[in-house]
Specification:
Length: about 270
């Protein structure tokens, strides 16, 4: 649904559209729970941790929304960013409406280029060097159109992809969604260990984009932090990532994923 061929999530997915236009807001209870979660992360891990919110595509491309839909600037995500409890990725682009090709018209997730730019913003926000890797770009046909029905005709599009990426060693426990653990090692990266708890945005692009700069990146598909896993991995940095629409529910912070993560076998990609 949208103009000029652009499609956006409706209300079948965590009430995404209603949240962005201000028809549905996080309850006072959820707001309080999230506030406690974010403050407890800082209290527990200090400057080693930061929580990042991925904006909804709806917010970045408001000119393509259906007529009479207007994104409200007073959203829970912008509140968390403004008080400093979380970092809202692409916030300047949301304000200026100049996101370019960070997304394409038929998918809810970023393009490869958008994922790279989000990753670089995370690395920079953590205070790490973003000058050590300078990408060159090629193009490829877009393959993912998750806002189209299976078998539905979709436009032919191309996207930018990195042509000079380093060789990355990738292993995964083979799970899909919650409990998925992926480790990425870049021998050329800076000598840091980084642990990411996040959703499909982090799984698709962010963990790989961060690994362009950092030697050891482990991604865990979970909105909540697993305290036992953090203690076991002893990372230098702990990143929380969450899509804006998922803020409608607060996570069960600290719960162990050990049983879920073990129900699989490790493979190399």
């Amino acid at each position: 649904m949208g103009n000029a061929g652009w499609r956006f999530l409706g209300d079948g997915n965590n009430f995404s559209l209603s949240q962005m236009v201000g028809l549905i807001r996080a309850s006072a209870s959820v707001t309080h729970q999230w506030s406690n979660v974010l403050r407890s992360r800082t209290a527990r891990y200090g400057s080693r941790t930061k929580t990042f919110i991925m904006p909804e595509k709806t917010c970045l491309y408001q000119r393509y929304l259906p007529d009479n839909f207007h994104v409200t600037p007073k959203r829970f995500a912008t509140f968390l960013a403004n008080v400093g409890w979380a970092h809202y990725i692409f916030y300047d682009h949301v304000k200026q409406q100049n996101a370019g090709d960070f997304y394409h018209q038929g998918d809810n997730h970023t393009t490869a280029y958008g994922g790279y730019e989000a990753s670089r913003e995370i690395v920079r926000t953590l205070g790490l060097d973003t000058d050590a890797f300078e990408p060159t770009w090629s193009t490829r046909p877009v393959a993912s159109f998750d806002l189209f029905e299976p078998g539905e005709d979709h436009p032919t599009l191309s996207e930018r992809v990195i042509a000079n990426g380093p060789s990355l060693a990738v292993t995964t426990n083979g799970l899909q969604n919650r409990g998925c653990v992926t480790r990425i090692v870049n021998p050329q990266g800076a000598a840091h260990r980084l642990l990411i708890f996040g959703d499909s945005f982090a799984n698709l692009y962010l963990c790989y984009g961060i690994a362009l700069y950092v030697r050891d990146v482990t991604f865990v598909h979970s909105v909540a932090f697993d305290y036992e896993m953090i203690e076991r991995y002893r990372p230098d940095f702990i990143v929380g990532e969450i899509a804006e629409r998922f803020l409608i529910e607060a996570p069960a912070e600290g719960a162990s994923l050990a049983a879920t993560c073990r129900a699989s076998s490790w493979t190399t990609r």
